[in-house]
Every structure is written in C-alpha cells, then in structure tokens.
Design brief:
The structure holds three protein chains of three kinds.
Chain A: H1 2-30, H2 33-36, H3 39-62, H4 69-74, H5 81-86, H6 92-112, H7 119-143, H8 167-196, H9 201-232, H10 243-268, H11 272-295, H12 308-332, H13 347-379, H14 387-408, H15 418-444, H16 449-473, H17 484-509, E1 511-517, E2 522-525, E3 528-539, E4 543-554, E5 557-562, E6 565-569, E7 575-578, E8 580-583, E9 587-598, E10 601-610, H18 613-630, H19 633-639
Chain B: H1 2-21, E1 44-46, E2 54-56, E3 65-70, H2 75-90, E4 95-100, H3 104-114, E5 120-124, H4 128-132, E6 140-144, E7 150-155, H5 160-177
Parallel strand pairs in B: 3-4, 4-5
Antiparallel strand pairs in B: 1-2, 3-6, 6-7
Chain C: H1 3-12, H2 29-39, H3 58-72, H4 77-88, H5 100-128
Classes of the chains: A alpha+beta, B alpha/beta, C mainly alpha.
C-alpha cells in the first residue's frame, strides 16, 4: 500500500509541477496576477507530495518491504537501520527522488525568501524551477520508478553495496545534490532576467546569496566524497580524476567563477554576459554530471547501473534545457551593455583573470573527461586520459590563479595605486616565499621547484587572507568593522590556502609501502615503526572480517594501535577493506590489509601522509567563509522583506 | 553575433557526440584488439594433456583457425563449452585451446568430464601468453585467417548467435577469397 | 539488457580490492621508483577505472609481474609502455602518448592560456578608455 501511495504522490507532484511551471511564466508574460499567484502555493504543494513520496520509500526500506524491487536490490534484513535509510539514495532511482526532493526544497526556500522581488520576476524564477522539476519527475516516473514492484517478493534482499555502508557515504549524496540542485536557482534567476530583458545590479544582488549557498553545499559535498574515498577505498588516494569526480568539480569551478563574476556585476554593472553565461553553465554542468553518471556512457567506479534508454531521456532533457537557455542568451546578451570603465590595475581586471582562468580549468577538465568518448566516436580507438594528464593540465591555469588571488583581494575597484598595494603585500610575500622554501626543505627534507611554488602559494594566500580581518580587529574605535561579506571572503580564501598547502605537501612527501608481515614482524615507514601484533576473526551485523592489530611506535615509544579489517559481506561476498587510520592535524598514518600470503603472512599497505587533513579542512573552511558571506546584512534585509522593496536602479541594459 | 551563438553551437556538438556514444554498437567493456587486421600473436606452450609436448601456433599456419582462451574457474567458459563441442563435431574449423591461469589437474578433469572440443590444447599457467595476446578475462576467442592475420576477437562466451553474426561471414570470406 | 540483469551484472563486477605487492619489487631504489611510477600510470584494463597499482584483479597482478620482468631485463620506461600498448592498445595508459589524436589534448592548456591572455588584454584595454567615476559604488570597498 505504502509504495503505491508513494508512487501516486509522485504523480500528484508532477501535476503540481506542471502548474508551477506553466502558469506563472504565462502570467508573467501577460502580467496576469492570478496566474502568477499560483507559483508559491504550487511550489509548496509539489514539495509536500515529493516529501510524502520520499517518506514512503524510506518507510519501505525500514520495513524491509522486499516486494518493492528497489528495496530488494539494495537492502537486506540484517542491514543496520541507518544504512536502510541511506540506501534510499544508494542507487539510481532513489537518488533521483532525492534530487527531486532537494529541487523542491530549494524552490520552497526561494518562494519563502523572495517577497522583496517584483512579482513578475519571482514568478519567472519559480516557473523555471517548476519546469525543471517537471523534467526530473517525468524522467523518474517514466524510466526510473523506485516504487516498481517485485512479485513474488524474495525472503531477503541483495544487500546494499558494502562500499556504501558507511556514514560518510550516507551524508555525501544529500549535501552534494543540495549543491548541484542549488545552482538551478541561479540558473532560474538567469532565465528570468533574460525573459524580462532586465539584467542589472539589483539582479546580481538578489542572485548572490543563493549562489553562495549552493556553492558551499557543493564544496562540502565534494570534500566529503574525497574524504570518504580516502578512508574507505583502501588505497589512500583522495582524488582520481574519475569522470564522475570531474563531473562534480566542473560545476564547482563554474560556480566559483559565478560568485566572483556576480560581485563585479553587482558593484559596477560589468561582466553581465559572463555572469549570465556562468549562471547557465553552473547548472548545465550539474545536468551534464547527472547524464554522465546515469547513462553509462563513460567508464567510472561511480556509475550507477547503466541504461542507454535513460541516457537518451536525460540527453534530450539536457539539450532542451541548456539549449533553451543558450538560445535565450544568444538573443539577449548582445543588448547587454555598460559603459563603465576600469584601469589596468584594478579589482575588475583581477576578477576578469579569475573568470578566464577558472573557465580554462573547467574546459580542460571537460575535454580531458570527454576525450576518450570523442576519440571512440570518431574512429573507434580507445584511449585513456587519467591523473598524469589532468595534474599537469590543471596546474597550468590553477597555480597562477592561486597566486593572483592574494593580490586581487586587496586591489581596489576601478583603479588601484601600485605603490600602496606593493607596500601592503611585500611582507606577506617575503614570509610566504621563506615558508615555501623552509617547510619542504627542513621539515620534510626535500627541495623541488614545483613543490616550493605550491607551498609558497599556499602560505601566500593564508597570510594575505589575514590582512583585512586583522586590520578590522585592530581598528580605531569608531571606524567601521569588516563586513560579513569581506570577512567571508577572507575566511574562504584562507581555506584555499590551507587546501593548497595540504595538496602540495602530501603530493610530494607521501610515503607508501607494500609489505608482507607475519605476526610479530615490524617495518619502518615515514619515520614510524609498524608492527603486526596479531590477527583475529570478527563478526559484524552483516559481514565477517579478519582484523589485524597494528602497533605504531616512533623511536621506540608507543604511539597508537590500529585495527584494519578485511571484510567479507555475507550476501554480496566480495571482500572489502576497512583501513585503520591514525589522524592528526599534520599527518595521517594509514594501514590497510591486503591478502593472506600463506605461512601466517599478510600483505599490508602502509602509508605516511603529511598534511592531508588540510585538504578537507581547507574545503570546510572555504564553505564556512561562504556561510559568513551569505549572511551579510544587505542580503538579510531583502530576505526578510515582506513586500517588493527593490526598484531597479538602472534602465534595462 | 557569432560569439553569442558559439555556446549553443558547442552544446550541439556535444549532444551529437553523446548521442553517438549512447548508440547500441558501442560496448563500453569490450576492448578492441590492437592486432585486428594485423599478424596475430604467436604462442609456444607446453601441451595441456601431454606436458612434454610443445604446442605452437605454427600448427595452424595456412589455415583458418579459432584460438580459445579458457579456464575451469570461469563461468562463461562453462556456458560456451556446449557450443564449442558442437562446432568441433561439425569440424568446419579447427579450434585450438589455451588453458589460461589454471591448474592442470582441474583442466584435465574438465575436459574428460565435459568433452574436449580442441584439436590441441596449450597450457598457459602464468598467463604470459595471455598477455602477449592481450587477454584480460576468460573466455576470449580469436579468429585467425589463413595468412595469420587476426580477423576477429570475441570477449565472453561464444554462442550460435554471435557465431552466425560475427564469425561465419569472415570465415566464408576467407575461404571464398582463397579459392 | 533487462534492468534486473544489468543490475546483476553490475553486482558481479569485482569490487575495488586494491592491489598489493608483498614487499618491495626491487632492491635498487631507482628501479623501485621507476616501477612504482609506471604502475601508477597503467590502467587495469578490466576494472572500472583503476590503476594496476591499486587493483587486485588477475590482469593487474599479471601486468605488474610482467613489468617487473621487463624492468629487471633492463628495458626503458618507453619500451615498457610500448610493450603494453602493443598488446592492449593505448587504452592501457593513463598518460595519453603524444600522437595525432592526443596532440590537441596536450596543446590545449598552453593554447587556452595564450588565448585567455590575449582576450583579457583586449578587454582591459577597451575598458581603460572608458570613464571610471560615473556610478554610485558603495563606500564599502572591501566587500567581496
């Protein structure tokens, strides 16, 4: 019964989405107040029914209702309850439902916090979001129905993929999708602007907080995915340039460019075409990601079960949505204009460079990811493009970018005098270069040019990000404090610095060793001694494991005990490794069991990973900076307004 | 105007590429052999049944032949065995087997229990020959032409359908051409 | 293929068991370093996107062994890669070798930077000619 309720709720949600999509847009075109007024209630209604549907699916999992095909394929009786819930989004059909739920949630948020916007504008935004919801709901109902039945129901299910039975993996999709889907709001704002022919500084101000929130969710989502892959997959890597990983990084880069481009449009009314195109691109890249993961078109460890029919549907939807947006762009963009100027040394120039470099990075990832597909389509040959290419290609735009961030942050709008800028940045630059040379050489024992540049760049951003907060902290009483916008920027950039240092250090000084150990034997790696004390069998709720006890010592002194496991899940039978990790702010010690080699010996992979935590901490700090910036007073003012209070300040440009 | 249309044009190109990529002819997991239409690799192995005997690819020089890599631990090999027996009974084309990454005792049991469709069988215990042929999973079946060229490689179990569609036409062409 | 069998096939794909050698392959640190660098760039052709360093699939183990043998015989890195490509195609290498097809790929970063630089210079030059004082910018300069 419950699955049928869930299914029916989804159908009702679709009908509401159709109303939400069509009527307000028509109403805005005709200036029909009644039609436009449908927007908010329809959005709320759609959300309610999608939520009901989602709850029904979750209920089916918790109830272990194996007469639902999706539940039978991704759960079992002995699965711990928390994973029964996360199994809802553990595969294609359920994760589509999660996507739809989050899109509906963002739409409700937009309806709630948009009273300050003119009715025609907010109707268009909610209308576009409604059309997007229609597309996804149709896709789910027609090709990926999570409520499909399996009669007769099996006595037990096929179990959730053991790799997904982990708390990290449980929260990674919801947060990641919140980011992907959040960019639909900026997309909708862009479409609304193009439909009305009006794109001005006020528009940019409205769009900024929504974009920042989506961006920070995506930042955290990607960081969680990377962190999870690191501790769960057993080989200690944190990024593989896998197509699905790339599919998340591209919208992030576009979103970052968008945030910065919006700043210029808000402040000076410049870069309007850029901002529009970036707003379209960020969500388009999210859609592209959905397509790549669910169509089976590329080989990836992340792909869902593949189905070209679904792929075709998504491709059609992609073509329609993005094509429509880009057609609008081609129509409206030529008339966007502004006559504001700026000097060569100015924040505008740096933000232009920022846009250019981020777009280059995004395009490089796109061509690297799609190259194997293009080559195959053209002449049938198969090539691989992996980390060796990506690392080199991406360093080329991103390393200069990181260095430029430090300067651009402190450059004034319109025109910046050269000498004061140099005076402000001279000291941090010197300290950064010194740190960049000293830390690798003396703390870790090696000097390499690329390594030094990377470390210097990291320290550089860390130091210069402190300048404005410090100045505010030590200001004379009576002078204004730093705004949240500026503080958020400083914090987010500080996070970038942490990230850069983490990446440089761990890439250069990571030590890995594959060894064979018998109980009682020890080996030395990265300055620590690892001894295999013994092995024992352990039973989990739905798995059996061999657990090793590894004692770690430094210079003979006890440091810690780790217990890596090699698990065999009872139903799916494939072996999985649970690494033992000793965490600290400045290094991880990573131990994973391989295979029994006979004679009591086991193969063990040991790793010493310095500064790796800074990679994810840096990302979280970036996101935190985003939260601070998005809560700036001027956004809260308009968010809490009860009626339209913004008049467009310029003539339609 | 063109610069504003270029994103749309870029999208159109991408969509075409994707549509082609979704086409049914495309098999993501099948790696085409780099030897296709070139000289097939050779092998020189101890025999499976008689370890003192040396079996080499020269045994089928000048004739159209099938080389089949198999193993007892491979489910697909079990699946295709019946069809291989059928082929060998018809005796239209010789089948040479290479037992890949396997144990001799089990392989001999397999052949005695299920039947031996192979004219001769080689024993590639450590998979070095498999690597020379670009094998990465069992079963893999290669069609060699009269001049030693590789005409076709099939990954996975062989069945009547695949035989009729992929192998038979090529064999007919080889036999016809060399009249 | 029906959805059910597609799912079943997916479930049968070997999981991400990572590859482990049971000890250093070479005593010579230089050979060991070359070995580790090479296996980090060779694709496990059967897996769903993994290097042979990180996979325990049969083919990954076999290829690692072959590479050890080739290096012990004194072959150069280029010869090792050529050996692999001869048997498995360009697909086996994660670093695309320079060829007609991949030229675009390797030239792209530099080319884009060049084009980006030219573009930026032109835009900035255009804007430098325009007046900068004719709008009401907020006093709060420091806001991002």
């Amino acid at each position: 019964m419950i699955p049928e309720v869930g299914h029916f709720a989804l159908i009702l949600a679709l009908s509401l989405a159709i109303c939400q999509g069509v009527l307000p847009l028509l109403g805005a075109y005709r200036n029909d107040v009644a039609m436009m007024a449908v927007a908010r209630p329809a959005a709320v209604g759609q959300f309610v029914f999608v939520a009901i549907s989602f709850i029904c699916l979750a209920w089916s999992f918790l109830d272990s209702d194996f007469s639902v095909l999706y539940v039978a394929n991704h759960s079992q009786l002995a699965l711990p309850a928390i994973y029964k819930i996360s199994a809802v989004w553990g595969a294609h059909e359920g994760s589509m439902l999660l996507w739809i739920l989050l899109l509906a949630a963002w739409t409700v948020a937009v309806s709630r916090y948009s009273s300050a916007l003119p009715d025609t504008f907010s109707s268009r935004v909610i209308g576009v979001l409604g059309l997007l919801s229609c597309g996804f709901l149709l896709f789910t109902l027609l090709t990926s129905n999570p409520f499909e039945r399996l009669i007769p129901a099996p006595p037990d299910g096929a179990d959730l993929n053991p790799l997904l039975q982990d708390p990290g993996l449980a929260i990674h999709p919801p947060i990641l999708y919140a980011g992907y889907v959040g960019f639909a709001v900026a997309f909708a704002f862009a479409i609304a602007a193009m439909l009305s022919g009006n794109l001005d500084r006020a528009w940019a101000r409205w769009t900024r907080p929504w974009t920042t929130w989506a961006w920070l969710f995506l930042t955290v989502g990607i960081a969680l995915g990377s962190w999870w892959a690191y501790y769960e997959l057993g080989w200690g890597g944190w990024w593989f340039w896998d197509p699905v990983e790339n599919a998340s990084f591209m919208p992030w880069l576009a979103g970052t460019a968008l945030i910065h481009s919006l700043a210029v449009t808000e402040k000076r009314g410049l870069f309007k075409s850029w901002t529009l195109l970036l707003a379209i691109s960020a969500f388009s890249l999210s859609l592209l990601g959905t397509f790549l993961v669910r169509s089976g078109i590329l080989i990836s460890v992340h792909s869902f079960a593949t189905d070209p029919e679904r792929g075709m549907f998504i491709l059609g939807f992609l073509g329609l949505t993005i094509g429509g947006a880009l057609a609008l762009f081609a129509w409206r963009a030529p008339s966007l204009d502004s006559s504001a100027g700026f000097r060569a040394l100015s924040r505008e120039t740096f933000l232009l460079l920022n846009n250019v470099l981020l777009v280059i990075a995004t395009t490089l990832i796109l061509i690297g990811t799609l190259a194997p597909l293009v080559v195959e389509v053209i002449d049938g040959g198969k090539i691989s493009v992996g980390p060796p290419w990506f690392e080199i290609a991406l360093a080329i735009p991103l390393l200069p970018l990181v260095l430029l961030i430090g300067v651009g942050m402190h450059t004034a709008w319109r025109s910046q005098a050269f000498k004061p800028l140099v005076a402000q940045l001279k000291l941090p630059a010197i300290v950064a270069i010194a740190a960049g040379i000293i830390v690798p050489t003396f703390v870790y024992g090696r000097f390499g040019l690329l390594l030094v540049i990377g470390t210097t760049a990291g320290f550089w951003i860390l130091l210069v990000s402190l300048i404005q907060p410090m100045r505010s902290w030590r200001r004379k009483p009576g002078t204004p404090a730093i705004t949240r916008g500026a503080l958020g920027m400083s914090v987010a950039h500080f996070g970038v610095g942490m990230f850069a240092i983490g990446v440089s250090i761990v890439s250069a000084f990571n030590v890995e060793a594959d060894v064979s150990l018998r109980p009682g034997e020890q080996v030395s790696v990265g300055g620590y001694e690892f001894e295999l004390r013994g092995l024992r069998n352990v039973d989990g709720p739905n798995y059996q494991a061999v657990e090793g006890e590894i004692e770690i010592r430094k210079n003979g002194e006890f440091v810690a005990k780790l217990r890596p496991q090699k698990r065999t899940y009872i139903i799916q039978k494939n072996p999985m490794t649970e690494a033992g990790i000793l965490v600290s702010w400045n290094r991880d010690l990573f131990v994973a069991l391989g295979d029994p080699l006979g004679n009591d010996a086991w193969s063990v992979r040991l790793q010493y990973k310095p500064m790796i935590r800074f990679i994810w901490l840096g990302a979280f700090v970036m996101a935190f900076g985003g939260i601070i910036a998005a809560s700036d007073r001027r956004y809260r003012l308009y968010a809490n307004a009860k009626r339209p209070l913004i008049k467009t300040s310029e003539a339609p440009a | 105007m063109l610069r504003y249309l270029s994103p749309l044009l870029f999208l159109a190109v991408l969509i075409i590429v994707f549509a082609k990529g979704l086409g049914p002819e495309r098999n993501l997991n099948e790696l085409p052999s780099p030897f296709l239409d070139k000289q097939a690799p050779k092998f020189d192995l101890p025999g499976l049944i008689n370890p003192d005997e040396q079996i080499s690819s020269s045994v089928y020089a000048g004739e159209v032949a099938i080389v089949n890599f198999w193993a007892t631990w491979c489910g697909g090999c079990r699946q295709e065995h019946g069809f291989l027996m059928e082929l060998s009974r018809k005796n239209e084309i010789p089948i040479y087997g290479i037992d890949w990454r396997d144990r001799r005792v089990e392989a001999l049991n397999w052949l005695s229990q299920l039947g031996d469709p192979y004219r001769v069988s080689g024993f590639d215990a450590d998979a070095t020959t498999g690597i020379d042929w670009g094998v990465y999973g069992a079963p893999e079946t290669f069609l060699i032409g009269k001049d030693g060229r590789l005409l076709h490689k099939h990954l996975g179990p062989l069945d009547r359908n695949t035989w009729e569609t992929d192998f038979a036409p090529l064999i007919a062409a080889e036999n016809g051409a060399q009249q | 293929m029906s959805r059910l069998s597609a799912i079943a096939l997916f479930l049968l794909v070997p999981w991400l068991a990572f590859g482990i050698d049971s000890g250093k392959a070479f005593d010579d640190p230089e050979l060991q370093a070359r070995y580790e660098a090479i296996i980090a760039e060779v694709r496990c052709v059967k897996c769903q996107n993994q290097t042979i360093k990180d996979s325990n699939a049969l083919i990954a183990n076999d290829l690692r062994r072959e590479i050890r043998r080739l290096l012990a015989e004194g072959k150069s890195d280029v010869e090792v890669y050529a050996f692999l490509v001869e048997r498995y195609g360009e697909f086996a290498l994660y670093r695309p070798r320079m060829s007609g097809k991949t030229l675009v790929l390797w030239m792209a970063p530099g080319l884009f930077i060049l084009l980006g630089g030219i573009f930026t210079a032109r835009v900035v030059r255009g804007r430098m000619a325009l007046p900068i004082d004719d709008d009401d910018i907020e006093v709060d300069e420091a806001t991002g």
